[in-house]
Design goal:
heterodimer; A: 115 residues; four-stranded antiparallel sheet; 0% helix; 52% strand; B: 115 residues; mainly beta
């Protein structure tokens, strides 16, 4: 069974640009969450989608957005990039709609560098 | 506001001995706790979890203890192996279906197991 796939793995952008990251969850998983990992702030929750609907959102500015498609694949977009957006962006998927096991399966992440 | 805290940035242990990683939380709404392990250039992988209705959960070499009154949990690894060397994250969830994808992570503890 394929794991969570994130593309691209690495990318470099300049300030002011926008970026789109993609995540393909494990087959059968309907929930997709996004996290930002930085050395200073650690792993922080961005948002979570289930059946194409955003159910939860973290404390990030509106420049961070996402969506989920009918096949559960998800994208996140960051507009007007700032230097502080440089981070590892992790996508995680889960099978259950509820909180039975709490287990999220993470992808390897997309490393974004903003120059 | 750090709701989940791992106060030890690093821990060094001899192979075969016990590793104890600690985690404190402040949010009384958290009712599900997880430990994740992360190697460089990989996404976090789930290790073990515990519900707030329990005070101990064991899985092979890994045991998690929860002290709700102290808002403290710990992960014990016995015996420790060099392959356990990684960053360990404590995470918590407020539970329920809509909160399922949202985990609050600690800053992580780097565990080094020496042969």
């Amino acid at each position: 069974k394929a794991g969570v796939t994130q593309t691209p793995r690495y990318l470099i952008k300049t300030r002011g640009q926008q970026v789109t990251l993609s995540c393909s969850p494990i087959s059968g998983h309907r929930s997709v969450s996004w996290y930002q990992q930085t050395p200073g702030q650690g792993l922080q929750f961005l948002f979570e989608y289930f059946s194409e609907t955003q159910r939860n959102k973290g404390n990030f500015p509106g420049r961070f957005s996402g969506r989920q498609f009918s096949n559960s694949r998800s994208e996140m977009n960051v507009s007007t990039l700032e230097l502080g957006d440089s981070a590892l962006y992790l996508c995680a998927s889960s099978q259950l709609a509820g909180g039975d096991t709490g287990e999220l399966f993470f992808g390897e992440g997309s490393r974004l560098t903003v120059l | 506001d750090q709701q989940v805290k791992q106060n030890s940035p690093s821990l060094s242990v001899q192979e075969g001995r016990i590793s104890i990683l600690n985690c404190d939380y402040t949010n009384s709404m958290f009712d599900y706790f997880l430990w994740y392990k992360k190697y460089p250039a990989e996404g976090p992988t789930f290790l073990i979890s515990i519900s707030s209705i329990k005070d101990k959960n064991e899985d092979g070499r890994f045991t998690v203890f929860l002290n709700k009154s102290a808002k403290h949990l710990s992960l014990h690894i016995v015996p420790s192996q060099p392959g356990d060397s990684a960053v360990y994250f404590c995470a918590a969830s407020a539970g329920g279906g809509t909160s399922y994808g949202k985990l609050t992570f600690g800053q992580g503890t780097i565990l080094t197991v020496h042969p």
